[in-house]
Amino acid sequence: MSRVKSGKVTHARHRKVIAKAAGYYAARSTNFKTATQAVDKAQQYATRDRKARKRQFRQLWIARINAAVRLFDPAFTYSRLIDGLNKAGIVVDRKVLADLAVREPEAFNAIAAQAKAAMVAA
């Protein structure tokens, strides 16, 4: 049986990892073994943080909505607004509500007024 040399394949694989590690500090961008570890860890962080980003944005939207609701009426809270929206049958997600609160306060206040009226009626 003939001997199999894997120089081309190995070099291509190494080059692929080194390319992903471009911009890393010191040996992490040049040394294959260290670069492999750094790239693997970076991919773990990327996977984890794709989920974390969704949580962080939801927290941001809720904080913005709560602040806008408190400006509308200091006694009205985020949770009461959401309950009022549900009772009024208004279906608006938090992302859109937060955007309205920041960019169009009048429209947000109109929605909040409807939610408050639904709370009182129920």
List keywords for this structure.
122 residues; mainly alpha; 5 helices
Note down, in words, how this protein is organized.
The protein is an all-alpha fold and 122 residues long. It has five helices and no strands. The mean pLDDT is 95.
Share in helix: over 70%
Global mean pLDDT: 95
Order of helices and strands: HHHHH
Instruction: Calculate the terminal CA-CA distance, rounded to whole Å.
Output: 84 Å
Strand content: under 5%
Structural class: mainly alpha
The main pleated sheet reads as:
none
Number of helices: 5
- Which shape, going by the Cα principal axes? rod-shaped
Poorly predicted regions: none
Short description, anyone?
Helix content is 76%, strand content 0%.
Write the layout of secondary structure elements.
Layout lengths: L6 H14 L11 H41 L5 H11 L5 H10 L1 H17 L1
Helix pairs in contact: 1-2, 2-4, 3-5, 4-5
